[in-house]
Design brief:
mainly alpha, two-stranded antiparallel ribbon, 2 strands, about 65% helix, elongated
Length: about 120
């Protein structure tokens, strides 16, 4: 029932949440020597989920290492400004997806009450 009620938005919310965690991990390790920044290719992960892949399979296949513009001498590939931009963009997408789901739940609740 939830798949038909929420459509792709349920899967999108899960993927955005996982991407948020990955980007936050990149930011937290910005000063860790040798840390390799990673990100989830959201579009390919969502397409994999819609094709029937599990959440782990979809994110595993779509998780990529970032290629730094200016690599650091200690091998860390986190570029803080890029991570902050990605985090902000993902947060906006997460919020929008959450609002869509919230709107659907409210519509169903009103329908059940007969309003």
């Amino acid at each position: 029932m939830s798949n038909s009620l929420f459509g792709i938005h349920g899967a999108a919310l899960e993927l955005r949440s996982q991407r948020m965690g990955l980007i936050a991990s990149n930011i937290a390790n910005a000063a860790t020597p040798g840390y390799k920044a990673r990100d989830i290719d959201f579009a390919s992960a969502l397409n994999a989920r819609l094709a029937g892949a599990s959440n782990e399979e979809a994110t595993g296949a779509a998780t990529l290492y970032r290629v730094p513009v200016m690599p650091s001498l200690d091998g860390n590939t986190v570029e803080l400004s890029n991570e902050q931009i990605a985090f902000s963009e993902n947060a906006v997408g997460y919020s929008a997806t959450l609002q869509l789901i919230r709107g659907r739940v409210e519509s169903v609740t009103r329908a059940l009450r007969g309003e």
